[in-house]
Structures are given as structure tokens and as C-alpha cells.
Specification:
Layout (H helix, E strand, L loop, with lengths): L1 H8 L5 H22 L22 H11 L1
Length: about 70
Amino acid sequence: MKQCIAEFVNRSWSKEEKVLVVVAATLLGVVAGFIFSPFQKGINVFSHNGSNNSNNGNPQQHEKEIESEE
């Protein structure tokens, strides 16, 4: 690996060309990471821990639900 880096640095390319190659390789790695990443099931934003808070913290709403069920 060290030899490959030394060969890259010692090439007769200009500094701008070397920077362009490094940036292109980095962006290619990012795109490949997005393509091959394990997002088959999607992304979950919330924890889905099963708290089942359907009334959003409003205790009166919960009492109305209980009364309507009876």
C-alpha cells in the first residue's frame, strides 16, 4: 500500500490532477456505499418501542375513549 501511494505521489501529473483523482475516488466510494448499503427494510426514524400513546399525552382524551367503549 505504501508503495502504491509513493508511486501516485511521484507521478508526473499536476497537483490539480492528483486532487481530482482523489476527490473522484472518494465520491465513487460514497456512491458505492449508498448502493451496497443494507437499506432493504428502509430507515426507521423513531424507536418503535411499543408505548402505544395514541392520545399524545392528553389524559382527558384517554378518559373519553374509556367512556365510549363502555
